[in-house]
Amino acid sequence: MRERTDLLFYGHDLSDVLRANLEGAKTDLDQIPETQFIQSSDSDIVEHVYSKREVIPLELYEDQKEMEIQETQVDVRHDFNRAIFDKSRPCMIAGLRITVIVPFSGDANLWRYRPSAFTLNPPRGQVRVSRDINIGHLEIVLERPSDSLGDGGEIKREVESTLRSVQNYLSNIRGEVDAHNKQLREHIQEYTANRRTRLGRHTEVVKVLNIPLRKRADVPDLAALPIKRKLVKPLPLALEKSAEWGIREEDYAHILNVIRHEGRSFEATPGTFVKHDEEELRDIILAHLNGHYEGDASGETFRRTGKTDIRIEFENRSAFVGECKVWRGPKQLIEAIDQLLGYMTWRDCKAALIVFNRDVAGFSGLQLAMENSLETHPTFAGRVRIDHPGEWRVRVRSGQDMDCEIILHVFLFNLYVLKKTKETAKVQK
User: Fold this and answer.
1) How many structural domains does the chain have?
2) What phi and psi, each to the nearest 5 degrees, are found at residue 149?
3) Distances in Å between the alpha carbon of 131 and those of 128, 136, 202, 286, 325?
4) Are strands 59-60 and 92-105 parallel, antiparallel or unpaired?
5) CA 272, CA 261: separation in Å to the nearest integer?
6) Is residue 228 part of a domain?
7) String of DSSP letters for 53-103
8) Any domain includes 234
9) Which helix (H) or strand (E) element contains residue 25?
10) What pairs with residue 56 in β-bridges?
11) For the segment 44-54, what is each residue's pLDDT rounded down to a tens digit?
12) Nearest by Cα to 55 from 190, 175, 227
């Protein structure tokens, strides 16, 4: 009897696992400390819990499959076409091992779960996972005696049959996972609203009692909720092409949201931050970005590689670039955009220009100057509507391919502090 260690989609029922994941999301939300929960917005809480509990469907890249072959010894004691009478011990003869290697992305745990629709003869294979649980390879291993290899047609048909079976399972799993992820977000939103209501009732009780709450001396104040997410690295499009790494649109939006939150924190206490130069402001943002994203230093984390820029890199190519500048006029703004365009070498690059105002008193006029300056850039191709004040999103043409348009998101944060003079000091007194 063959061992079941290489059976795919054989183990726990997927529906039970997904149901437990919904319950786990509620536990995650309830374990957020009360103070931290209150200080965080509902949307940040939902994204935080969702990013921990989201299930990434499996995607198999058959067009990138490879093959390895090696000589081996094959046990033929159960071959009915051979006259082998003692089947209690192995009968080894020379043979060939063929290993078909197919890359995949998605949650590798899904290979061990059985979807609602399944067969009694699931496919077989070995799953190899890299350090990133969302990237790996499926290995389909076939062993044949050398004297029965034939022209390879039978082996080809078995590989194709196994891959068809795998793809059918993946399709069934994807349907259940997609429905689960939609339900997951809705459940987290409901859990968040319910806990917010409970905490509101608790607050009302405190107000009625009108007795100060005792604070423990050994417990620090909690900052707003950090959101831990993983950047999912896509596989290359084809084997003969070099890898072009990128980030998802939702990750780009989240990066911008982290920068937005940090910049508004600067604006809330400008006196604390106006003393910093471009590099120091960059390092503060860099630290917060690395607090939100986790991954290996080779390509997933934010690293500083220039004087003022923040990047996600792989093999000296940038998937995200953020440039920090202090406003010094339209000419320097144009130069900063040119600098960003110099970093961008392929279509999937996403960028942000973060501009700090330290010296201009009229911020409304400065915003108008910023808008006009962006439109005067030689590669300006149009604006993209956004709803955040003090921010712009524009389409610019790549410096290396004028037919390629790049989306550039621009922030303008106001750190201007009125300098005190003897006259203003007297007035304040």
Assistant:
1) 2
2) -70, -35
3) 10, 9, 44, 24, 36
4) antiparallel
5) 16
6) no
7) HPPPPPEE-GGG-EEEEEEEEEE-TT-TTS----TTS--EEEEEEEEEEEE
8) no
9) helix 14-30
10) none
11) 888 888 988 99
12) 175
Q: Tell me, what's the pLDDT at 161?
A: 94
Tally Cβ neighbours within 10 Å of residue 282. 23
Q: How far apart are CA 158 and CA 421, in angstroms?
A: 85
Q: Both 159 and 265 in a single domain? A: no
- Where residue 210 falls (left for φ over 0; alpha for ψ -120 to 50; beta otherwise) is left
Q: Are residues 109 and 258 in the same domain?
A: no
Tokens, residue 217? 């001396």
The verdict on residue 49 lying in a domain is: yes
Per-residue pLDDT of 387-418, as tens digits, reads: 788 899 988 877 666 666 778 899 999 998 87
Number of residues in the chain: 429
Which among 164, 189, 214 is the end of a domain?
189
One domain for residues 171 and 275: no
Identify the domain containing residue 374 by its residue range.
Answer: 249-414
Share of the chain above pLDDT 90, in %: 24
| 325 vs 279: CA distance, rounded Å | 9
